[in-house]
Amino acid sequence: MHAFPRALFLVPAFASAVLAQSWTFPMSPRATYLRTNQDSPLPPVVVDLAALGLAPGQWLRIGSTGAFRHITGGQDNSRALSAVFSGSAALLPANVQQRVVDAIAAGPDFLSGPTYHGSLPTDVPQDFFCSRTGWDDRIDVQVPAGATHLFLGTHDSLFNDNVDPNGDWGAVVTLLPPPLLPGTGEHLVLRSAVDGVPAAAPVVHVAPPGSTLLVELGYPLGLLDGEIYALIADVAPTGGPLPNPLPGLWSWNLILLQAGILPPIPGWTDSWSMVATADFPGTTVIVQGAALSARARNGVFVSTAAHAFLFP
């Protein structure tokens, strides 16, 4: 069980600390750590985490900048960045499926398709999508235990026809403040507000009587289409222990606010709201988004960071 000092609830801006350092890595659209066949790939970008002062347990925002052209005659508007953490910088030749020798699972899992030539399998179970054409261009992920390096590459089935006419394709890595109520850091995000527009931060709000609590569930990169999602809640005394029965889960009672099926729709959101009353002073309402999926890193569920509302 975890407890928050009451002062945290009285200063919601605490949870909206400015982002820390950020690094940009120019990249060829032919750079990849994936297996290839009858192709001409280039090596991925390999980031030494310690050299940047980064360590396991920290949270990073990993996304793309610019775009590239992935077919001859196509437009310069493709964004397909994937990444994988590793316990070393070792990388095997391009004809090997598991090229990243010491890959460590993290982030939103997905299944890579076969090579364009020969339909050879390419999937790396430990890697994750960071930027997807038509969807979002970034994801927040926790550096897993044992990770010393981060491999960044373009995601495709054929690389020899990828070009970047204006040379703007690349990856951006940003160190984030540690989340107050972290989720699993995978496929879903939560935004919240009191009498305002929902945002990712702050995650703690004071909700005086008559104000409107709003939460919004986002699905930035897709990849879990057809899975069951839910907005859930729990209630705790302000300043007392918070319900945290499992890593990434901030609810014992699993009060269901809303549920549905995740659709293959870029930009999709679902929302829930309520008007605060004066009936429950000294109470904190904790709201979180989650989805059930065998593709979750824990094998059961993915979850957003939780957001908390203080009823004064």
Q: Care to describe what's here?
A:
Helices cover 2% and strands 35% of the residues. It is mainly beta. The protein folds into 2 domains: 2-16 and 181-311, Sandwich (Immunoglobulin-like), CATH 2.60.40; 19-176. The strands form 5 sheets. Strands 12, 14, 16, 18, 19 and 20 form a 6-stranded mixed sheet that branches. Strands 3, 5, 6, 7 and 9 form a 5-stranded antiparallel sheet that branches.
Write the layout of secondary structure elements.
Blueprint: E1 2-3, H1 6-10, E2 22-26, E3 45-48, E4 59-65, E5 80-86, E6 103-104, E7 128-132, E8 138-142, E9 149-154, E10 170-176, E11 189-194, E12 204-206, E13 212-218, E14 228-237, E15 241-242, E16 255-261, E17 269-275, E18 283-292, E19 301-303, E20 307-311
Parallel strand pairs: 12-20
Antiparallel strand pairs: 1-15, 2-10, 3-9, 4-8, 4-10, 5-6, 5-7, 5-9, 11-13, 13-17, 14-16, 14-18, 18-19, 18-20
Keywords:
Immunoglobulin-like, 312 residues, five-stranded antiparallel β-sheet, 2 domains, 1 helix, six-stranded mixed β-sheet
Mean pLDDT across all amino acids: 93
How can the largest sheet be summarized? Answer: 6 strands, mixed
Q: In terms of per-residue confidence, which ranges show pLDDT below 50 for 5 or more consecutive residues?
A: 5-19
Shape: elongated
Rg for CA atoms: 21 Å
| SSE series | EHEEEEEEEEEEEEEEEEEEE
Domains, number: 2
Alpha-carbon distance between the two ends = 22 Å
Percent strand equals 35-45%
Number of strands: 20
The portion of residues assigned to helices is under 10%
- Helix run count: 1
Structural class: mainly beta
